[in-house]
Amino acid sequence: MILTATTALVTSPVTIFLIVLAIILFAPVILNRLKIPHIIGMIVAGVIVGPFGLNILDRDSSFAIFGQVGLLYLMFLAGLEIDMYHLRRNLRRGVVFGTLTFFIPMAMGVAASVYILGLGWLTSFLLASMYASHTLIAYPVAARFGVTKSPAVLISVVGTIVAVIGALLVLAGAVNIHETGAFQGSELLILLGKLTLYCTGVLYFYPRITRRFFKHYSEKVTQYVYVLMMVFLSAWISGAIGLEPVLGAFLAGLVLNRYIPANSPLMNSIEFVGNALFIPYFLIGVGMMINIGVIIKGNTLWVASVMLAVALASKWIAAYATQLIYGMESCDRRMMFGLSTAHTAVALAVVTIGYNMSTPDGSRMMDETILNGTVLVILVTCAIAPLFTSQAASKIKIRLMQASNDAPGEKRRTISTLIPVANPLTVAPLMELALLMRRRRSGINADRLYALHVRNDNTPASKAIGENALKLATDAAAGADTAVTPIERFDINTVTGIVNTVQERDISEIIIGMHRKATVIDSFLGAKIEQLLKSTNCMVVISRCYIPINTITRIVVFVPHKAEYETGFHDWVLAVGNLASEIGCRIIFCCDPTVQPILRGIIRKSGLGIRHEYRDVTDGGDFVLLANKVLEDDLFVMVGARPNSVSYSSDMVEMQIMLQRYFGRNNLCLIYPEQFGTEQPQFSFTDPLGSDIVTTASPLWLAVRSRLHRLNMLKKRITHRNRR
Q1: Distance separating alpha carbons of residues 115 and 137, to the nearest angstrom
Q2: Span 148-192, pLDDT tens digits
Q3: One-character DSSP codes across 549-564
Q4: For residue 378, what is the DSSP state?
């Protein structure tokens, strides 16, 4: 087998962990200057310090545990970072690629093993399953370039699952033939049945348990521990039924994808811990298993060369065939080849099983030569995969940037969002909503976030509340790796402070919590928000959510008549679309049929990649009927309109009353789009004649006046009927 190593030089746990941290720290720093992917540095460092290098560290139980955790973490992140909308669009192509990247290596592997290496048929099939499987070891490279949503990456991910499942089935069949002496299809059928029941159980129970847990426990550490527990539970069940744990980790990532938005603090914590510790540990552990010295012994170099040629050529042919079938570009082929060419965990499992199995004459099914040849395959493929992936990812990134609206050189409008925070209890939900609605950009045109607290006294209690609220806002944004500018302002009142900040900071949109009705005479929005809407023309988002935003199942949007003529129509559609994209839910637009083509065009052009549906709504009666169709876990979004705007009508006042009556228990979000025009000045009680009672009438007064008018009309009709 592989040469036996002597006792390592370092055995102290503190020193071992210090050396590992030094490798994790300095390997990327050094190799980035050499334009070499840091993954190669981790593996090479593992070879150098490992038992077959300088023998500084021994591959003890800590590397075995952390290495296995890192592999599962890697597969979990691959499933978690997948865009489910684009995955569905590329699912068929991924299955085709998976079929090709499984059967082509199987056929070439069996032929090379039988006719070149002179192995038996059973051994050849077992060895060919090693060629067919692969590990997404280069996936972090694609993630660093931000191309995980590209078709080539999604096709490779789907193809990986198909190839690994196929390789495990072949492995199970070969073991069964070796033990029984004949092929028994019933064993494979039983394994397929277990796989079906397992996937069905995870897909059914995981979303329901996760939604319920996230509703009751919002603390990020608790959520993080829960997510890890569910991942390893899925991996353990997968291993218990005879499959690889990596399949369970990947499936858990796909299912939990819906509840962990990409731009959330929880996602940032998951990526940080994995990329900083677990995944580097796995890569260093892979390098520590490689023994380069055995390659030059006997005919190992010849056998290893044949194995390496089959492993690389078969994966390249599969990627090339997929490129030809779907008319893809050369960089897509290199990306698929780079992601599907690395062999690690499954390859070691296959050859270890073959090494421990004996033939009728007492010899091993796979001898030390094949085992050491596998070591060379692992070393070369793990070095090649990041290089091809890095080269392809850079070109795919440029192509995506040129095709998007955010291409370099294009003049883009900077979106500045203001989040007024007053109550520390509502800061975190407001910040999370703002983070999920924002457009992800970088550079000088990046979106800017401002957290504002306005106070009108200098008491210690008021200062303490403001400092606490701003700190919570800063912490929430930092958890999502986003910068926010805290602003503490002393002003006459809250509305005046917000309006002055809007003018000073050139604010584009405001996200504020909904007013809670305290007295009978209170209107639905409250006097402050009503005055804010009159005093500014920027987009205002008013939110009230009873459940965490990432547990929303659908977003139902009511679009009023003529809303498409408003200046901010495009902006609010993008904001709601980004929210749906981040939390992975579908969005249902309830609007006039004439608006639907415009909405489809905006969503298609922006490349949001969301599921969007449409319901015909033509009058206020249909609006009331929506109350029975909006569920408890839905978010109901109503697009409002300021008085004197294009889409404003008298029905808007009645809709606010209907919202209070019929949607009191629903998650609600009111959006008042941006509109240009002269802002109305604020009037105080010192000049009661300075405002027009008609134009500044409250919605409550307008509603009462409308009801009185209806009662008078009804009374006239009854009187006229009695006279007849």
Answers
A1: 31
A2: 878 898 898 888 888 887 887 787 777 767 666 666 667 778 878
A3: GGG--EEEEE--TTGG
A4: H
What is the reported pLDDT for 107? 92
If pLDDT is split at 50, 70 and 90, which confidence band does 336 have? very high
> Quick check: 242 and 191 in contact, CB under 8 A?
yes
Question: Where does the pLDDT of residue 204 fall: very low under 50, low under 70, confident under 90, or very high at 90 and above?
Answer: very high
pLDDT score of 565 more than 80: yes
Architecture of domain 412-513: 3-Layer(aba) Sandwich (3.40)
Find tokens 């865009």 and name the residue: 83
Locate CATH 1.20.1530.20 in the chain. 13-59+67-401
CATH code assigned to 13-59+67-401: 1.20.1530.20
pLDDT surpasses 80 at 711: no
The amino acid at 525: L
The structure's pTM equals 0.72
Structure token pair of residue 147: 């191309």
What interhelical angle do 427-437 and 460-479 show, nearest 10? Answer: 40
CATH 3.40.50.620 domain position(s) in the chain:
412-513, 516-682
Q: Does the pLDDT value for residue 47 go beyond 70?
A: yes
d(CA 261, CA 267): 7
Tokens of 234: 């899925």
Q: Quick one: which H or E segment has residue 141? A: helix 139-145
Q: At what angle do helices 427-437 and 569-583 cross, to 10 degrees?
A: 110
Task: At 396, list the tokens.
Answer: 């795919």
- Strand residue runs (E) in 359-478: 416-420, 448-455
CA 578 to chain centre: 12
Helix count and strand count (H, E) for the chain: 26, 10
DSSP 203-254: HHHHHHHHHHHHHH---HHHHHHHHHHHHHHHHHHHHHTTS-HHHHHHHHHH
Q: Are 673 and 568 in contact (CB under 8 A)?
A: yes
The CATH architecture to which 516-682 belongs is: 3-Layer(aba) Sandwich (3.40)
Does the structure show a pLDDT above 70 at 646? yes
β-strand pairing of 539-544 with 667-672: antiparallel
- How does residue 119 score in pLDDT terms, banded at 50, 70 and 90? confident
The answer to whether 287 and 45 are in contact (CB under 8 A) is yes
Residue 220 token pair: 């990020």
Whether residue 685 has pLDDT greater than 50: no
Q: Does 635 have pLDDT greater than 90?
A: yes
The answer to whether residues 230 and 206 touch, using CB atoms and an 8 Å cutoff, is yes
User: Contacts from 110-119 at CB under 8 Å and sequence distance 24+?
Assistant: 112/306, 112/307, 112/309, 112/310, 116/306, 117/303, 117/306
